[in-house]
Amino acid sequence: MSRSAPALRPYLPEDAPLLAAIFVASITELTSDDYSEAQQEAWAMTADDEDAFGRRLAGQLTLIASLLGSPVGFASLKGTDHIDMLYVHPGAAGQGVGAALCDALEKIAGARGAKALTVDASDTALDFFRKRGYAAERRNSVTINDEWLANTTMKKTLDGAAAPGGHA
């Protein structure tokens, strides 16, 4: 079966409502093995204020992935070296959307001089990032809308980050 690669484009302000919907669907449909319903609801509520959600995306380098012309995922780079958000619609999960977004952010971060990239990965996303070469650094507990959620800060050294001779 041949699959077309997702098309990537920059975030536009009018994308906020659709990306908020992808964010909520991703949380509510893909994280139930790792988080309670109350935790999922608290997490998903962070997109209820679409204006604030849009400002967060606009304040970072945010890419949108589309399949067959429809946006199905997005990712954002905070500063030069931190993946802040990476969400894929459940209907597009497993089709290379997350990988394409992550590849692009890794290339952009490297081009901007980052030696490594970090992410605070949800328990659901741990294996995704581990398979991409990210290593767990520490566990975190964060409070979102009065619910405690765990995540893991992970780090990946980017290609070309080591100087000749093997010294970083």
UniProtKB/TrEMBL annotation:
<protein>
    <submittedName>
        <fullName>GNAT family N-acetyltransferase</fullName>
    </submittedName>
</protein>
<dbReference type="InterPro" id="IPR016181">
    <property type="entry name" value="Acyl_CoA_acyltransferase"/>
</dbReference>
<dbReference type="InterPro" id="IPR000182">
    <property type="entry name" value="GNAT_dom"/>
</dbReference>
<dbReference type="InterPro" id="IPR052564">
    <property type="entry name" value="N-acetyltrans/Recomb-assoc"/>
</dbReference>
<feature type="domain" description="N-acetyltransferase">
    <location>
        <begin position="6"/>
        <end position="159"/>
    </location>
</feature>
<dbReference type="Pfam" id="PF13673">
    <property type="entry name" value="Acetyltransf_10"/>
</dbReference>
